[in-house]
Amino acid sequence: MDFVQQTGETLELLKHLISIRSVSKEEGAVTAFLFDYITNKGFEPFRKGNNIWLRNKYFSSELPTILLNSHIDTVKPCEGWTIDPFTPFENRDKLYGLGSNDAGLPLSSLFSVFQYFYSKKSLGYNLIYAATAEEEISGKNGIQSILSELGTIDLGIIGEPTNMKIAVAEKGLIVMDCYSSGTASHAAHAEQNNAILNCLDDLQWFKNYQFEKKSTLLGDTKASVTQINAGKQHNVIPDRCHFVVDVRVNDKYSNQEIVDLIKDSIKSEVKARSLRLNSTCIAEDHPIVKKGKDIGLDIFGSQTLSDQALLKFPSVKIGPGDSVRSHTADEFIYIDEIENGIKTYINLLNGLKL
């Protein structure tokens, strides 16, 4: 394989991806571009909504299947950009642009890896490459919407910026709306049943409570009160106080266990927005973990959420780039991360036996 050529092609693909606005739920234009790009390479991709996938040349129902997946959507540009976030800007050893790091670099690198393996007869497994939508909002029109189309998947490799370290576990997420009640009344009255004051004990509980089950890979489950809202007038005691809690769940709890525990511990009404974003953990003796260790890759547990949370089969998260650059102003990658990422992915997959 000519890595210089592949690096150049991957860099150009990444520049195209940056230049097309692809904020979550606005991925139509970039999906159309990528579909045509893949087709012009001689492949026959499938498309459903803003999701694209394709299979290797010698796909066989008798072989296990590995999914190579990353996402095409980005967050909205934050404040502080000093350049146009949708104009790729190359400066010495860096390429700047929205989505360059999260997750354009893993997405384009994985496509290069798919091309490398596409025509190989003796892989011992199938490959599916999937570029999917709505990852940044954990949307239902992303990877979850095409899993039934992909068939049985035995292993997922999820492309996210991890400095090519292997995330073998990932925290889940629950967002909860909590409501305390009171009685609306004039602020001048002596007797007051104030919904704000009625939730103070619950807020203190979230501040002090420590979840008992610890995880070696993911640490503690963490609950954070992130929003609060009550009242519409200065002279009216509010009868309702709404606060939002963000819970990052380690692999020792199910999301339902966490919700049940919190409901039993506080007085406010608790409504979980969703239970679908569960923590993940792959077995330490899984072939992909053992292969990663064999080639010298670091293993870790990830605090950040990805589409892994929606997968019901074993998966790992690994990709070029650095998570600390994600969602930042003047997001960038180092250009030499492209070749390193492609080579590492190939080394990880070469000779892998499931």
Give short descriptive properties of this protein.
single chain, 354 residues, alpha+beta, Aminopeptidase, Alpha-Beta Plaits, 2 domains, six-stranded mixed β-sheet, four-stranded antiparallel β-sheet, 9 helices, 24% strand
Q: What order do the helices and strands come in, and which of them pair?
A:
Blueprint: H1 3-19, H2 28-40, E1 46-48, E2 51-55, E3 65-71, E4 89-91, E5 94-96, H3 100-117, E6 126-132, H4 147-150, E7 155-158, E8 166-170, E9 172-181, E10 185-186, H5 195-198, H6 200-208, E11 222-230, E12 236-237, E13 240-249, H7 255-265, E14 269-272, E15 280-281, H8 287-294, E16 299-302, E17 315-317, E18 332-334, H9 336-349
Parallel strand pairs: 3-6, 3-7, 7-17, 8-16
Antiparallel strand pairs: 1-2, 2-6, 4-5, 5-18, 8-15, 9-13, 9-14, 10-12, 11-13
Helix pairs in contact: 1-3, 1-9, 3-9
General description of the model:
- Helices cover 28% and strands 24% of the residues.
- The chain has nine helices and 18 strands.
- The chain has 354 residues and is of the alpha+beta class.
- Strand 4 and strand 5 form a beta hairpin.
- Helix 1 crosses helix 9 and helix 3 packs across helix 9.
- Strand line-up in the sheet with most strands: 1-2-6-3-7-17
Number of strands: 18
| C-alpha Rg (nearest Å) | 23 Å
CATH topology term of the largest domain: Aminopeptidase
SSE class: alpha+beta
CATH C-level label of the largest domain: Alpha Beta
Summarize this structure briefly.
The chain is an alpha+beta fold. The protein has nine helices and 18 strands.
